[in-house]
Amino acid sequence: MNPASANHQTYAQRLWRHFRADKFAHYGLGIVIALFIIAALAPFLANSHAIVRVADGRITFPVLLSLEPIEWRFLIYVLLAALIYFFRRKLQTHPRRFLLLTCFFVALVELWLGFSHPINDPSNDRERPSSFKLMPPVAYSPIETTPDQFSPPMWKHPCGTDSTGRDIAARMLHGARISLSIGFVSQSIALLVGITLGGLAGYYRGWLDIGVSRFVEIIECFPSLLLILVVINFTGSQNNMFCIMAVIGLTSWTGVARLVRGEFLRLSGQPFTLAAQAIGASDFRVILRHLLPNALGPILVVATFGVASAILIESSLSFLGFGMQAPTPSWGDILSESRRYIDFAWWLAFFPGLAMLVTIMSYNFVGEGLRDAVDPRLRIK
Amino acid sequence: MTTYLIRRTLLLFPTLLGITLLTFLLIRLAPGNAALLKGGGGESGGRAMTAEVREQTIKLYGLDKDPLTAYVDWIAKVFRLDLGESIVDHRAVAAKIGERLPLTISLAGSALILSYLIAIPLGIIAAIKRGQTVDRAISFIVFVLYSIPSFAAALLLILLVAGGDYLNLLPMYGANSINASEMGFPAWVRDRIVHMILPVVCLTYASLSYISRYARVSMLEALGQDFVRTARAKGLPERLVILRHALRNALIPVITVFALELPVLISGAVIIEEIFSLPGMGQLMFQALAARDGPVIMGITTLAAIITLLGYFIADILYVLVDPRISYQ
Amino acid sequence: MSIPLLRVENLGIHFGSGENLVKAVDGISFSMAAGETLAVVGESGSGKSVTALALTRLLATPSARYASGQIEFKGRDTLRLPESELRALRGKQIAYIFQEPASSLNPVFTIGYQIQEAIELHRPEVSNVEAEIIRALHTVGIREPEKRLGDYPHQLSGGMQQRVMIAMALACQPDLLVADEPTTALDVTIQKQIMDLLKELKQKSNMAILLITHNFGLVADFADHVLVMFRGRIVESGRTADVLRNPQHAYTKALIECVPRLGQKQHRLKVIDYAGIE
After folding, report:
1. Closest approach of chain C CAs to the CA of B138, in angstroms?
2. What confidence tens digit (pLDDT) does each residue in C125-163 have?
3. Chain A residues within an 8 Å CB radius of B285
4. What residue ranges define each of the domains in chain A, with the CATH number in brackets?
């Protein structure tokens, strides 16, 4: 691998430089990362259990005890991904060993999660006496009802409460996790399907191309939200996060497929593809190692906009009542509820609306920044 | 050009077939119907189906026949616009959709026209004054608008401008006031327009953002072409160079992009009609979903897909008409 | 002594700034008499096209700066003319033809319309515009011009497109025709046809022609005078015959040697050795 000398920069480095130059994209990325962290750390930011509690001479960590398996997974795997990213160079030297290690680790984690039981303690630690306790910044759980209904924003409840006294701030923080995970997973599914179909169509052309293109055309005739609503309705999967992820993913892949098909059509006609094929590289290898990295730029752009779009769709679904519903904290659901009380409880609409705006705007900024960085016409430097 | 048109029209049919196939599959996969396929079942929307409804559903979708015959039947039915009867009130689905379609079309149509009217000048100005404050301001505002979810915007507008504590300028719901039937025609029209302002605005702003960005890019590209330099070298005033030579070329792709916006508008209509209680096709869809009214759901979906397909077709035709490079081959 | 048609004095045109400053044209001076044919020869980046475009301020001003000098056309400095007078100059007194005829013509208008536009703009006194267009097309050698009026540019071959551009330029009977590499994008045989056409036009009218090219081969029996540009400066100038026979500057010599000659056994095309210049 060539080290980057002063004049010669890798494609990724040039992209990054261009991206950094765009202030909005830069801040957008910052917000996106912040949202990620918030989503991952949500149980530590808003919980009715204390993070640390010292009572009767014993130290306990109530938060950790109350984490559901899925929350553990969120924490552990995101950490794992971060570790892998930062140590990727070292790990590349022994790929097989590293893969085995990861599988082993994942197996261990899953086993442990299978056997552990979260302590579902609906009571809260706020009132419990203790010699020392450290509560999360928002000391309420997102699904915990209090008698403080319709409380406007105040010190105790920074974003107010809703009709059943649930703290909005807590719901917002946990809702970020719902929106982001649905956004990311569904987009990953869309990418997988889109890249596969689009890539095959662009590389092999002929009947495969015609077939895939017709298929894409047919699906694109259906308004996406309508299609998603119908499928969710027919499969009865409201409030089922995994089903929603799958449905959104399986209906939004057409944009990616078109793009990848176009890129592969263009790239496969270029001499380097012919060269790779001439030295006997298998089709799979040519696609994966040669064509895909070159198409990665535009794909990343579409993917970023896709996440924003998926978040939007999920919120729309929840808003209409066909997505995640109460008590699960989803931004769209909170907004939906706010309709009835909008006259006097403005905070019910304001905070989730603001959160959505900021999130989607950030992803769009990042997407725009990427698009400008990837644009071949700007290849002056 | 005629060969292109004929070819394009012929290509419609496979796609139409594909649409009907997809809707057909969806129907068969619907749990209520799937159970009926197996000869048992009889639940829809949580209610036990009456024997009559069962019979009707089976007959409508040919669930008792083999798939191929059932599919052919379904295609024939779609052509005849016989989409069955609603489970909820036994009225013909086609009739139910038909009486609500005009409102949705006027809603979506106005939004589309308005978007274009505002977006094209915005995009052109941004392109001409590229990099200057005007361009940056327009781009930023358009960007923010694009990121606001339609229902959030609707709620915000309702909060601020309609009903509620603040301004009470516009009505919160309905397509007409309650006493609309007693008004004379001009008053009725005014009443309708007043009621439609907010819904149309909510549908317009997102389309507007997209189209104006598209127009800006397209205009920038046109302005960078050689023939613009030729026009200047001929001595044409800058105004004509931009508005006559560059714009004419820039508009070609912009005009055809409406086909992409059509499905988005239809989807948006579902949300907007729900929020504003407009008796259009979108609200019907919402009600049908809530009531698990299969025939209506499938009827609207099929219709939406066909409308979108027509939109693409019209866009293609327009493109051919407007770009001489394609028609004169 | 009569005033020269065109007199360029100490023209300087800069792009970019600071570290990225590029002096595309670095203080050049030359002049043209009425009816004279001047060829400006140089390689890509020598500043010849920039000079040509600068004559009527056709360069995009945010990026290009007219740093110094003046361009006197019929006694008036075009760099300082107000917009309206400049526009009257463009097309009517100084006309252009460009390198890529395919993209220099607007694809959505017919060629008849584009020529009509020029005539209506600068010669409002003409009553039968269509006849004028047909005549212009005929002059540039297009057969059956009356049938070609409704054609779109993409329907014509490259050579015909360039002829249309020339017709459009001539329609207003300019005093100076600036031809910016008019044949570079064309086939060799078509190149000859276009050059022959230009020669014919030169003989029939008193129009001055400024030919920009990188090909010395075109210059020989076409231009009266020749300028050689290198990196924004004029390195040699004079009567064509003199310069060709007796090139003074190393670059000129190199350029002349680059033109392949029939009958000469060449194993390799000659390449310019920049180290030997200036």
Report:
1. 21
2. 888 989 999 999 998 989 888 888 899 999 999 899 999
3. 226, 229
4. 12-47+140-378 (1.10.3720.10)
